[in-house]
Amino acid sequence: MLFKSNFVLEIINNKIMKRALIALAVSLIVLVTTALWFFKVEKSITGPEVLTFGIIIVLVGFGLYFAYMRFTGAQRGEPPEDELSKRMLQKSAAWSYYISLYMWVFMIWLKDRVTLDTEQVLGAGILSMAVIFFLCWIVIRIRGIRNE
Question: What is residue 116's DSSP assignment?
């Protein structure tokens, strides 16, 4: 019976490793394509492009951190998702969704006042949503979840 239990745990750990490898591969692909875009620019690099590149680097760093935590947790034999981590992820997603709604209202208001291309506003909004989620996740990870 113990052998079967260990066998099942090993299968689950292999699935965790596959998910971590997928997160690692996606992060590296995004990093490589962003670097190619950054170095293939023929004109001089403007401030918004540097800001966009910086935000992408932060998000790729977040993905690499996620993959690293999955790898180390699997090697230590920890469960991939416990109740606390699921609750923290759910709480940070709820906060970021709520904040993102106001961010989109602000961006629509800003688009009416300033002449911006629609694609730029949409791209900045999507990157902003990712940064908002990242910041909410950090705050909840530091602050913890109170009894509600």
Answer: -
Q: What burial letters (b/e) apply to 17-45, b meaning 16+ CB within 10 Å?
A: eeebeebbeebeeebeebeeeeeeeeeee
Question: Are 98 and 33 contained in the same domain?
Answer: no
34 contact partners, CB below 8 Å, separation of at least 6: 53, 56, 57, 60
* Burial of 46 (C-beta count, 10 Å sphere; 0-12/13-18/19+): exposed
List pLDDT tens digits, range 73-118.
777 777 767 788 788 889 999 999 999 999 999 988 888 888 878 8
Quote the domain boundaries for residue 31. Answer: 1-80
- For residues 2 and 72, state if they share a domain: yes
**How many structural domains comprise the chain?**
2
103 and 60 belong to one structural domain: no
Whose tokens are 């670097």? That residue is 35
Evaluate if pTM is beyond 0.70. Answer: no
Which residues 6+ apart lie within 8 Å of 57 measured at CB? 31, 34
Q: Given 39, 64, 80, which residue is the final one in a domain?
A: 80
